[in-house]
């Protein structure tokens, strides 16, 4: 399982260090595109309307599972840069507790210069994606708390 | 040997560019290449100056004031109406109604003429290449009235299938609302023929001139259209202003759109009489500053010369088309014989959004997505396109930058 030993901040720091090696924007995007291409495809059964993240120019599907107090995400998109960004979000958030996910500041996005993808004007969905991931965390948290 | 030059053919793009301050800026460390002109054009200094001058020197509410500032503001506001009248060759200045833009113009007609004249079972014809703003108002009206929306299909090149249009026409047709030039494809539609044929069955025709006004010479009398709508911001003017032209008898017989000040003559609690044209449709304080500055945009365009601009833009269109067609896996969407300077394209296995991000990274502004024309995208079975649209200030060097950017982006994404 991912992130069994690392906190959200630790993984964020790793990504920031990886990006510090790049001199140019082209290099950064090449790396993100590479991540996008390597992201495991989502099983077709999950590619339905209810799993679509709204507010994206590209189509993004996101599903979440809850196991032993931690949340595991799977996602895919038809656009590869978004897929690369998703891949990083999954690396940071998947396998963490609902509380940690809800409270995550995700400063790494700004640190690596990808803040513009979070802006409202960019309808490419990173913001919607983060919201949806946190919504899942919140929903699982509430469900879990009610069950107890 | 004596050299002769045709002064009318001279178009100095470098000189034209100097009028547009925004073109000087850099994006991501690269000179801006602005190819999103079909969404909105950049503004020349004269338009910016007109806005600043209005607010600096004669800002006042129009029509009602007796003081000097109000008189000056009213004169400037009404001068734009005269210029717009000439721009469209409308019969009278009263037929120029100021709106917030094309969208409001269409909604105004739907909510006034439409509500008054459309009944259950009536048919409204639009086309498969309409912008959402020329679909949704009619959909809402049709839902409310129990009317039927009919859609003119298009062929593979992105041209209306006129035989199909003729088949749709009948005595049930009450309105044809058609885009003059497609924002997503660049297709110039044969609106004059459409109007003729629609009139033959007694239908009223609205022409959506959002894209055509900046590129083509518009003559509403020659077209014989019943309504024509446009937006200032696509003709080098400010945002938030548009024009609705209408035939006088229609504008006079239609009920008012919004109620408020300016649009009334006398108000009693039991009886209200409405103002004459054009004020009947201009309730409340209008967008004075932007309307005043819109005149500067129309004057500027006229001074440079629409025909010269068109020749330049066509050159850019052909140059870009030729170079784009050489890119492997790239397919141009919209190959109409009559086109304005808009090129939409898709690239095999590449999402338009990825292309848009990587081009922006090189300072190149294009539009990606469905261009507010989802039914059109469905028709081509694509989620969207990348669109480059050219204006008077664009250059071949900028197209070279686009082509280089595309090669690099496609290589990265493939």
Walk me through the structure.
The complex is a heterodimer of chains A (148) and B (414). Chain A is built from 6 helices and 2 strands; from the N terminus they run ααββαααα. Chain A has helices at 8-19, 25-38, 80-93, 98-103, 108-111, 126-147; strands at 60-67, 70-77. In chain A, strands 1-2 form a two-stranded antiparallel sheet. In chain A, helix 1 packs across helix 3 (80-93), helix 2 packs across helix 3 and helix 3 packs parallel to helix 6. The longest helix of chain A has 22 residues, at 126-147. Chain A is globular, with a radius of gyration of 15 Å. The two termini of chain A are 25 Å apart. The model of chain A has no long low-confidence stretch (mean pLDDT 87). Chain B is an alpha/beta fold. Chain B has 15 helices and 17 strands. Chain B has helices spanning 13-17, 45-57, 68-88, 102-117, 136-145, 162-168, 191-200, 212-215, 220-223, 248-253, 288-304, 306-325, 352-360, 374-380, 396-413, and strands at residues 26-27, 30-31, 33-34, 96-99, 123-127, 148-152, 173-179, 204-208, 227-231, 242-246, 264-268, 271-274, 330-333, 342-347, 364-365, 367-369, 385-389. In chain B, helix 2 (45-57) runs antiparallel to helix 11, helix 3 crosses helix 11 and helix 4 runs parallel beside helix 5 (136-145). The A-B interface holds A 25-26, 29-30, 33, 57-59, 78-82, 123-124 and B 28, 351, 353-354, 357-358, 361, 368-369, 383-384, 408, 412-413.
Summarize this structure briefly.
Chain A is mainly α. In chain A, 49% of the residues lie in helices and 11% in strands.
């Amino acid at each position: 399982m991912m992130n069994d030993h690392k906190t959200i901040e630790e993984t964020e720091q790793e990504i920031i260090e990886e990006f510090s090696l790049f001199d140019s924007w082209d290099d950064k995007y090449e790396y993100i595109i590479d991540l996008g291409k390597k992201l495991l495809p989502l099983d077709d059964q999950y590619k339905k309307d209810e799993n679509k993240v709204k507010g994206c120019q590209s189509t993004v599907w996101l599903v979440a599972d809850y196991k032993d107090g931690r949340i595991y995400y799977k996602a895919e998109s038809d656009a590869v840069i978004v897929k690369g960004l998703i891949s990083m979000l999954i690396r940071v958030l998947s396998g963490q507790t609902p509380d940690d996910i809800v409270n995550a500041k995700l400063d790494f996005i700004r640190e690596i210069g990808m803040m513009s993808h979070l802006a409202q004007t960019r309808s490419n969905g990173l913001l919607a994606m983060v919201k949806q991931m946190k919504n899942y965390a919140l929903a699982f948290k509430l469900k879990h708390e009610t069950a107890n | 040997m004596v050299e002769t030059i045709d002064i009318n053919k001279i178009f100095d793009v470098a000189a034209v560019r100097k009028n547009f301050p925004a073109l000087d800026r850099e994006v991501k460390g690269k000179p801006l290449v602005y190819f999103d002109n079909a969404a909105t054009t950049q503004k020349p200094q004269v338009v910016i100056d007109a806005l600043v001058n209005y607010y600096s020197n004669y800002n006042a509410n129009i029509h009602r004031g007796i003081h000097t500032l109000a008189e000056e503001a009213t004169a400037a506001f009404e001068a734009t109406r005269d210029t717009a009248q000439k721009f469209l060759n409308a019969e009278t200045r009263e037929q120029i109604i100021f709106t917030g833009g094309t969208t409001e113009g269409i909604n105004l007609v739907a909510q006034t003429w439409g509500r008054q004249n459309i009944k259950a079972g009536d048919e409204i014809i639009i086309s498969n290449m309409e912008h959402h703003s020329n679909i949704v108002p009619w959909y809402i009206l049709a839902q409310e009235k129990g009317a039927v929306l009919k859609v003119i299909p298009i062929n593979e090149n992105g041209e209306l299938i006129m035989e199909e249009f003729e088949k749709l026409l009948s005595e049930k047709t009450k309105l044809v609302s058609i885009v003059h030039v497609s924002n997503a494809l660049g297709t110039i539609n044969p609106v004059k023929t459409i109007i003729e044929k629609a009139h033959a069955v007694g239908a009223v025709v609205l022409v959506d001139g959002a894209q055509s006004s900046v590129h083509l010479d518009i003559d509403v009398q020659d077209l014989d259209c019943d309504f024509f709508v446009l937006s200032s911001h696509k003709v080098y003017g400010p945002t938030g202003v548009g024009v609705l032209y209408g035939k006088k008898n229609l504008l006079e017989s239609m009920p008012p759109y919004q109620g408020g000040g300016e649009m009334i003559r006398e108000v009693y609690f039991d009886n209200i009489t409405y103002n004459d044209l054009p004020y009947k449709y201009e309730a409340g304080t209008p967008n004075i500053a932007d309307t005043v500055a819109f005149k500067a945009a129309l004057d500027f365009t006229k001074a440079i010369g629409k025909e010269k601009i068109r020749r330049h833009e066509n050159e850019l269109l052909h140059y870009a088309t030729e170079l784009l067609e050489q890119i492997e896996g790239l397919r141009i969407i919209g190959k109409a014989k009559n086109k304005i300077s808009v090129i939409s394209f898709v690239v095999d296995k590449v999402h338009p959004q990825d292309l848009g991000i990587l081009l922006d990274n090189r300072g190149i502004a294009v539009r990606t997505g469905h261009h507010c024309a989802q039914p059109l995208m469905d028709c081509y079975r694509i989620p969207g396109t990348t669109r480059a649209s050219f204006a008077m200030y664009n250059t071949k060097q900028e197209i070279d930058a686009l082509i280089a950017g595309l090669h690099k982006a496609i290589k990265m994404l493939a």
